[in-house]
Amino acid sequence: MKAGQPTRTPARTRPDSGDLAEARARPQVIRPYGDTTGDGMVQMSFTLPVPAGKRAEAAALQLAGRMGLDPASVVHVKPMGPDFTFFILYGRVNHLIDYAAIEEPAGREYPLLGAAEVNLAIRTVLRRRLVVVGACIGTDAHTVGIDAILNVKGFAGEKGLEYHREIQVINMGAQVTVEELVERAKAEDADAVLVSQVVTQKNAHLHNTKQMAAAFHAAFPTAVAGGIGRPLLVAGGPRFDTVSAEDLGVDRIFGRGTTPGEVASYLVHALLPGFDVEEHGRDHG
């Protein structure tokens, strides 16, 4: 090499499966941090059923200590009426996590389709519009979730199911009874029923969804599965991550951050099995 000639950096090669397996076998210990990496500092909040005051703060600190925060500090206190107090605490945890030992969660088991591809699938296989009935059931008056999926304005830059010309959307709105939902789904000969549950106090979202699922199973006693003898049952909301679809009797659960495209793609996957966009070509529908 001549003087002054720059050295060449060896090209980086992608590690093979053996390298990846070896890397995963090595522990990767991590802990949370607030001010400096690895300091273990976390912030947490909770409400205690006691009046605000020094005794209440002592109770909050004792609870934090039993949860593993040492030391802990009360950084915010707010009375919630005469008999409840809201706290925010800041403290250090000594727990460690081996990140290398955590398996990658299962990803989406179906391809994400564009609106034209969804329309193509429905038009090719069903040869009619796919009918979707959506609602917020029980006392839940929060339509933000169901509207984000159904309304044409959509969510996260994606247009809702109403935008798909091959999908007929019936949005029943809020505080719909289970009986009304079953009756409307039958009247519309729905292919899928989408239920949004945002209110989660006392696990209302779980109770309501189970009640809804039981009603549909009773109303379609000879059904083989979702989409075969009864509508596909889909539930969505921010607090369904602790249960499975089987636990609730539905066909699918969608959690926080779900986009209309994910739901539309799932409907094609579940109701039109075996459809291949590449095989049938693409259009601009």
Overview of the structural elements:
This protein is an alpha/beta fold and 285 residues long. The chain is 31% helix and 21% strand. It is built from 9 helices and 12 strands. The strands form 4 sheets. The protein has a 5-stranded parallel sheet with strand order 7-6-8-11-12, with helices on both faces. A 3-stranded antiparallel sheet has the order 2-4-3, covered by helices on one side. Helix 4 links the parallel strand 6 and strand 7 (167-171). Helix 3 packs parallel to helix 8. The longest helix is centred in the last third of the chain and has 16 residues, at 204-219. The termini are far apart. 29% of the residues are buried. The model is unreliable at 1-12 (pLDDT under 50).
**Helix and strand string, N-terminal first?**
HEEHEEEHEHEHEHEEEHEHH
Taking the alpha carbons of the first and last residues, their distance comes to 61 Å
Content-based structural category: alpha/beta
How much is the average pLDDT?
89
Contiguous helical run count: 9
Number of extended strands: 12
Largest sheet: 5 strands, parallel
What is the percent of helical residues? 25-40%
Catalogue the unreliable spans: 1-12
Shape: globular
| Strand ordering within the main sheet | 7-6-8-11-12
**How big a fraction of the residues is strand?**
15-25%
Radius of gyration: 26 Å
